[in-house]
Amino acid sequence: MATDATGSGECTERWDQLYEALAAQPRRTIIFSLLKAPEDEWLSLPDAADSPMQPMDSQDPCIHLRHHHLPKLADSGYIRWESDPFRVRRGPHFEEPGFVVSEMIESDREYPERLRNECVVIGSVEG
């Protein structure tokens, strides 16, 4: 059984934080959009969070992004974002969700058939 080397549960908390950050489609789509962009590039919002496969369900996606999705990603250091202009870029700990999302995309063909055919993981992974 693996143990936390720090003895404080910090490692477990970081994984929980990462899973929670990637639990919502708009947040996964933001990470995916940033993966496709050059490292220091700012991306426009809400465009970087919108998936043609699963549009955001809020009447005003900007409000939902500002008050829910972006703070969750920013608090973990995964992204940085600004209100005016409304945009996002990679944060100092972006490599953590970036790695997980990359692996999800790379292993798409290895998913069980039901997940591969019936569920949207990231959105459109083309491009």
Characterize the structure shown:
About 45% of the residues lie in helices and about 10% in strands. It has a domain at about 60-100. It has a 3-stranded antiparallel beta sheet. It is mainly alpha-helical. Helix 2 (about 25-35) crosses helix 4 (about 95-105). Strand 2 and strand 3 form a beta hairpin. This is Helix-turn-helix domain-containing protein.
List its traits.
5 helices, 3 strands, 8% strand, mainly alpha, Helix-turn-helix domain-containing protein, 127 residues, three-stranded antiparallel β-sheet, globular
How is this fold's topology laid out?
Blueprint: H1 10-21, H2 25-36, E1 43-44, H3 61-75, E2 79-82, E3 87-90, H4 95-106, H5 113-118
Antiparallel strand pairs: 1-3, 2-3
Helix pairs in contact: 2-4
Protein name: Helix-turn-helix domain-containing protein
Organism: Halobellus litoreus
Shape annotation: globular
Classification by helices and strands: mainly alpha
Overall average residue pLDDT: 85
Q: Helix coverage percent of residues?
A: 40-55%
Stretches with pLDDT under 50, minimum 5 residues: none
How many helices does DSSP assign? 5
Characterize the main sheet.
Answer: 3 strands, antiparallel
Strand composition percent: 5-15%
Question: How many whole angstroms does the radius of gyration measure?
Answer: 15 Å
| Secondary-structure element pattern, one letter each | HHEHEEHH
Number of strands: 3
The end-to-end distance, rounded to whole angstroms, is 40 Å
For the largest sheet, list the strands in their spatial order: 1-3-2
Protein name: Helix-turn-helix domain-containing protein
